[in-house]
Amino acid sequence: MFVHNLASPSQVGQGGLTRRWREHVTETEYRARRAMTTFVIRRLMQAVMVLFATSLIVFVAVYAIGDPLEILLPSDASETEKAQVARSLGLDLPLPVQYGRFLWAALHGDFGNSFVYNQPAMTVIFERLPATLELTITALLMSLLIGLPMGLWAGNRPGTMVDESIMTGSILGFSLPNFWQGMMLIMIFAVWLGWLPSTGRGEPGTIFGITTSFASWDGIRHLILPAINLSLGNMAVIIRLTRTGVQETLPLDFVKYARARGLSERRILMVHVMKIILIPIVTVIGIEFGTLVAFAVVTETIFAWPGVGKLIIDSISALDRPVVVAYILVMVTLFIAINLAVDVAYSLLDPRIRSRAT
Amino acid sequence: MTLLEVSELKTWFETPAGTVKAVDGVSFSLAKGEIIGLVGESGSGKSITGFSILGLVDPPGKVVGGSIRFNGEDLRAASEERLRALRGDRIAMIFQDPMMTLNPVLSIGTQMVETVQAHRRMSRADARAKARDALGRVGIPRPEERLDAYPHEFSGGMRQRVAIATALLHEPDLIIADEPTTALDVTIQSQILSEVQGLAAEMGMGLIWISHDLGVVAGLADRIAVMYAGRIVEEGPRDDVLDAPRHPYTSGLVASAPIANERGKPLRQIRGSAPSALHRPEGCAFRPRCDHAGDLCLNDVPETCATPRRWRCFYPMGSS
Hints:
heterodimer; A: 358 residues; mainly alpha; MetI-like fold; 3 domains; two-stranded antiparallel sheet; 2 strands; 76% helix; 2% strand; disordered N terminus; B: 320 residues; alpha/beta; Rossmann fold; eight-stranded mixed beta sheet; four-stranded antiparallel beta sheet
């Protein structure tokens, strides 16, 4: 009987309603695509501006710290020797000229030679970057694979023993100083138990032509302790964020409606709740990944891990400007790329953002 | 044949401030294919009654007494797994605001398919076809395409149609509709009302329609139960209740409907406001607002049964 009240689908199809609706959709889609292109272009322009600004700041800052010649040359070097080296490195020119020359070369893909290693700065960095990325990615995956389930577990059973223990553990996770935690790990697992090596990268294996720690047992054994050390703080953040997310989402009406439809608790938690809380978690993962790469320094120093963190510390003390500047630019690029990836992930996770991009 | 029999249902909430007796001895029954309108103002316990039937009362609330029998089965004794199997299959529920109840980040299709698959072993494609047919049945144009849309891409009325289509997926024996049209425009509201009425009749479903709006229920229900402060104060066939209310509260509700008022005259209203659920008056909870109250009203009010009607009042209207 209700059919008579409403236009049936076929009736609507002949009328103007469907046609108008269709036009509306194409219009929306068109606007969405145009907005996406604008968005990407704007992002790229911002990236270029940021790279330019950081290079300038870092260049001037390193210049201001001190004269690399004092460190590079033995203290008894003669004035002529000094002048000769300064000229060969271009350090005799005024600062704006030095920066101008750097910028011009950088635009052609040349970031200068390291004062210390006498190799292109980028080569020096990219030789060590895989070790750091390996470490950070392992740490990030560990914190997710352990942190997410624990957060879900705790959030689903608030106030229970399990919840209390996980929460107390997570407070330790991000309040213990990283270096102390690292030394404790070495003491327990390397010194007392003797299970795992405490320094270096071991003998990395080769897989598909890429040299990586993942490819050899020795490599993996060397990776475990530093990766745990790097992941603990991040894991604590993920646990807390997930737990809070679950607790905020479970009382929402759509969870009750999902129950009223007879869905299992498992499906509700793993699909309905999970998809909602992944949005803030992805943001944090983005920030944390950048932070992990940039702040792997402490862990790399404790475990003598031959990554970029150790390189940058050495380069700063040697005032090796090309390496420092190139390193910062690589990190900035990485952060920009991560941010972009996070934004893309948002729109994949949340259909409301997808259509709001119009 | 009796589909649902609720008797002396008590759902209480233990709070630090005291016990809130949200539902305090509610009894009613529903036959197959029958529509009952559960009317009352906010806090009268009508929604909690609905949730109690499904076993979906949120803590600290708890069903503490009474019985719920559905198709002869005691739901209070049923396991959580048994209740889950019944929900969405034999008993479906429609909520007030479909914007809040559909998951915003999952497509309509996903949410309908999962409802199908929660109760039937069925391939994704078959479940999707079933979902598409259900959308078509409630008058959603081009259902195949709309399955891929997300809740925010629907208007309020369309979203509620999706909720109704979802409720109809397994042709349930009972639908509990909790103010499903309150958030909608009046024109959409009447469309949805007539649709639901038609579908309920067509499928022989029992329907509990919870509403604060006597006008909505008047056009839909076979019987009306009026709730006040956690109890049913009057229940009976629709026309009897509307034309000759026995309880002064029902009478007040009928009189305060704008349509019943004379044009140009101030609208009639029931004075005062509903009592706090923590501090209900002794005896009849409506006493402080009632013009007909007498000495007897300080006592607990027994139910007067005059089949097919019943009420809880010492001084019923329409008797001298």
